[in-house]
Amino acid sequence: MKIQNTLWIIVLVLATSQAWAYGSGSSSKKACSKPKFTQLTPVNNAQVSPGSAFSFDASAVPNPETIKVTVKDQPVDVAVAAKNQGFHVSGKLPDSLKDTFARISITAEGPDQCKGNDGWLVKITE
To answer: What is the pLDDT of residue 84?
Structure first.
């Protein structure tokens, strides 16, 4: 009886140590700091005119040249200005987009080459 109890204890100790081994690997990896985008203007689902201005704030972007914006899959030129612990980004919707919904899509690279993306939808009317 004592030998059987001892064997069970050994099996449980080995199983527990195996479980702890799996948990330690994930905590040793570095966390990824993705860029965050706030103050999206105009607001989501807003009705705007062709060529209207848009803007947003970006944080955790060490290189502002990695900030890319597309509107309905068309690349858009943006102006990037330094702001407290981040950047303010502004641009204009393409004049060619009329009477359609368009997604303003943002991508940027944060520290450690972690990519972040976001976007919002606007309705472009004539």
So the answer is: 86
23 versus 35: the higher-pLDDT residue is 35
Q: What is the pLDDT of residue 121?
A: 97
Domain residue spans of the chain? 36-124
Determine contact, residues 86/110, Cβ cutoff 8 Å: no
> Which pTM does this prediction carry?
0.73
Residue 23's identity, in one-letter code, is G
**CATH 2.60.40.10 correct for 36-124:** yes
Residues with Cβ within 8 Å of residue 99, at least 6 apart in sequence: 124, 125, 126
Angle (nearest 5°) at CA 84 between 76 and 58: 30
Tokens at 68, concatenated: 């890319």
Q: What integer pLDDT is reported at residue 63 of this predicted model?
A: 87
pLDDT grade, residue 15 (50/70/90)? low
